[in-house]
Amino acid sequence: MLNIDDKNITQEVLSKISIPTDDRMHTIFTGLIEHLHSFARDVQLTEQEWEKGIEFLTQVGKYCSPERQEFILLSDVLGLSSLVIAQNNRKPAGCTESTVFGPFHVAEAPRLEPGEDFSQGAPGTPWFVRGKVTGIGGETVANATIDIWHADGEGQYDVQAADIHGLRCRGVMKADLQGNFFFRTVVPEAYEIPSDGPVGSLLAAQGRAAWRPAHLHFMINAEGYQRLITHVFNKEDEYLTSDSVFGVRASLIADWVKHAPGIAPDGTFCPQSFCTLDFNFVLNPAS
Question: Using one digit for the tens of pLDDT, what is the confidence trace for 152-177?
């Protein structure tokens, strides 16, 4: 077609897709093109606004690194991550809910022994965490691989700051034959998602807060079960209802119990106040 205009451009683009109509990518590309064009028409997008959008996405790409995934952060603050997770993780009642992955996971985190302290000197209140991994029928899930990561007591991840050398507040461990796990770290605090990049500018332009409530990340893999990516939140956190990435679920809110100095769950004496968390995970069988 030579006489392209704002009325026929969408159909012309769609007509160039040569993928079979029963191919999943045909569905995705068709929907993407139709919705992008509808968006431009609905808001009467100007050329200057289009250019600004292209520059924004370019900057998002430039801010991505092995330690920081700005595109995941963008997806998170737009609610897309949470929407996709909800659509793809409809589980039977009783299974632990999934939530957003976040931009600060690091592959090949240190391997942990049961009960190990992996805070590596990070600031924060000592924290003793234990729980159990089971299936939907209460059956034991032995030897589940548990990947854990979180911010420190100042609300900062190890990969965010140039003055933090090496990995801390993250690690990978195995549940035992009964599905039990136990580790020590420090209590994370609420934090603002990175505001030094394009996603931070986007939130500012929308007049939105950038806070995330304190949480602990878990990614659990076990043979015969669906992978679980989730958080555990502090029930006392003030940002539970205003999470900037829409990741909070009521079932994932727990009591982070405070204790006076004394004997800790691992039998050692803790000379300062500490916290404990008991939280069990229920996995959904693989289809």
Answer: 999 999 988 767 778 999 999 999 99
How many residues does this entry show for the chain? 287
Give 230's contacts (C-beta < 8 A, 6+ positions apart).
96, 97, 98, 99, 217, 218, 219, 220, 252, 281
**What is the predicted pLDDT for the residue at 183?**
98
Extents of the domains making up the chain: 70-283
Residue 145 token pair: 């691989």
- Token pair for 179: 């599905």
Residues 134, 178: Cα–Cα separation, whole Å: 9
Whole-number Å distance between alpha carbons of 151 and 222:
25
- Please tell me the distance from the alpha carbon of residue 101 to that of residue 76, in angstroms, as a whole number: 9
Integer-rounded Cα Rg, in Å, for the chain is 22
- pTM for this one? 0.90
Instruction: Indicate the pairing of strand 253-254 with strand 228-234.
Output: parallel
Find how far residue 53's CA is from the centre of its chain.
25
Nearest to 100 by CA among 131, 118, 121, 79: 79
**Cβ-based neighbour number of residue 90 at 10 Å:** 9
| CA separation for the pair 184, 128 (Å, rounded) | 5
CATH of 70-283, one of 2.40.110.10, 3.30.565.10, 2.60.130.10, 3.55.40.20: 2.60.130.10
Place of tokens 């909070």: 248
Label residue 40 by pLDDT band (50, 70, 90): very high
AA identity, residue 128 = F
For 113-234, list the strands marked E by DSSP. 126-135, 145-149, 170-174, 180-186, 191-192, 211-212, 215-221, 228-234
Please state, for a pLDDT cut of 90, what percent of the chain lies above it.
90
- Write down the mean pLDDT value for the chain: 95
